[in-house]
Amino acid sequence: MKYIILTIFLSCVAFTGIAQNSIEEVLTHIAANNKEIKANEQLVRSRKLEATVGNTLSDPTVNYEHLWGRPASLGTNRELVVSQEFDFPTVYANRHKLAQSKSALYDRQEQEDRQNILLEAKLVCIDIIGLNKLLEYQETRLQHTRRLSEIYKQRVNSGDANILESNKIDMAMLGIVSEVRKTRSQLDIRKKELQRLNGGLPITLNQKEYTPVVLPADFVQWKTEALAADASLATLQKESDITRKEIKLNRSEWFPKFELGYKREAGGELFNGIVVGVSIPLYENRNKIKLAKAQSLYTEMQLDNARLSNETALQTLYEEAVSTEKSKQEYETFLRSQNTIELLEKALENGHISISEFFADADLVYRTMEDYIQLENEYQKLAAQLYKYRL
After folding, report:
1. Cis ω on the peptide bond leading into residue 60 (within 30° of 0)?
2. Sheet holding 270-279, edge to edge
3. Is CB count within 10 Å lower at the N or C end of the chain?
4. Quick one: which of 128, 108, 104 has its CA closest to 198?
5. Measured on CA atoms in the order 149, 150, 156, 160, is the torsion positive or negative?
6. CB atoms < 10 A from the CB of 199, how many?
7. Kind of pairing, strands 61-68 and 76-86?
């Protein structure tokens, strides 16, 4: 019995392990195979191409006129005009800068989506490890209960115990079987989720123990690093940058457009020369600058609000992680110093407690161990969210 308890304890509180297929390796596969990540890559390519559309010269125009005189003695008149319209050079420069900012924005959005997908995958991996640890503990507990059931059946046959005691053990065993079945079902669901995130391709996580995680000692310094690398804030920052460049572009579009061309006129006599035109933007750009300024102000407010929200969320996550880590350490200290199951078994064998008392007290011990496994899982999830910006 002591060997069983020691095995359970070591399997539940160990912190290091060697795995053929670790969480990091699984995330590498998912980054390469995930359907949404691949779709986002194609979307970013198309958006970058779209951002460059419109920053070229407009198509040249060719006009030809053939006029017949009346009376016929006037002859005919023919006119050919070839012209090219172009914007003021500043407009092209501002459009180019705007396209570059949009390209950077699409990269940030792709990075943000990628981080969210990989975080989801990492949380699933953490659940798989936690459920494997819980399942191993429950199966060991089930084996112990089955052996106890066999012992009491033999005692019933020899007259050393009554059938009611044996039935109580069997009832407890049914509850454990149900818990094992439930854990296996949850584990199967998580494995299917991991396969979905891997683009539907089979993938196995062989890592048995959590990777040790140390919380940042200096929260202020870590928060500064986390906010600076936050993909969602970087996305909003680029959106703000785009709105400022749109203001500059709209201002430059108030410069006139020019048209330059060649004209040839032939009738009774031949004329040819250049054509110069100017388009004065009196109506087309009206209210564009006001609209761009309003959008810029809105984006700045969004950025400030998001920065404050993210900072608060990081503070909450960090405090919750610190609290969870402290509780986890308290559980570890308690579990290392206890051999309650062994004492209860001796008391049962010596007749100091009944089978009902044994299972009532043993259940508290088992629930404590399961609570610890759940606490360890929660701590790993909180740490994964804290270090999301590193994915």
Report:
1. no
2. 61-68, 76-86, 257-266, 270-279
3. N
4. 128
5. negative
6. 16
7. antiparallel
10 Å CB burial of residue 125 (0-12, 13-18, 19+) is buried
Task: Identify the bridge partners of residue 259 per DSSP, sorted by sequence position.
Answer: 85, 277
Helix 89-158 × helix 355-386 angle, to 10°: 170
Q: Which of 84, 355, 106 is nearest to 239 (CA)?
A: 106
Residues 6 or more apart whose CB falls under 8 angstroms from that of 293 comprise 247
- Tens digit of pLDDT for each residue in 37-79? 999 999 999 988 888 887 777 788 888 888 887 777 677 888 8
- Residues 280 and 271 sit within 8 Å (Cβ to Cβ): no
CA distance 182 to 191: 14
How far is C-alpha 317 from the chain's CA centre?
A: 16
Which residue from 255, 279, 305, 263 is spatially nearest to 94, judged by alpha carbons?
255
Report the run of H or E that residue 370 belongs to, with start and end: helix 355-386
Closest Cα to residue 263, out of 275, 254, 253, 255?
275
Q: Distances from the Cα of 167 to the Cαs of 23, 44, 149, 170, 353, in angstroms?
A: 44, 65, 9, 5, 17
Coil, strand or helix at 270: strand
Helices (H) and strands (E) in the chain, counts: 10, 4
- DSSP symbols for 303-347: HHHHHHHHHHHHHHHHHHHHHHHHHHHHHHHHHHT--HHHHHHHH
Q: Residue 351: which of 167, 157, 160, 145 has the closest Cα?
A: 160
Rounded to whole angstroms, the Cα distance separating 181 from 174 reads 11
This prediction's pTM: 0.79
Where residue 49 falls (left for φ over 0; alpha for ψ -120 to 50; beta otherwise) is alpha
| Length reported for the chain | 391
Burial of 128 (0-12, 13-18, 19+ CB in 10 A): buried
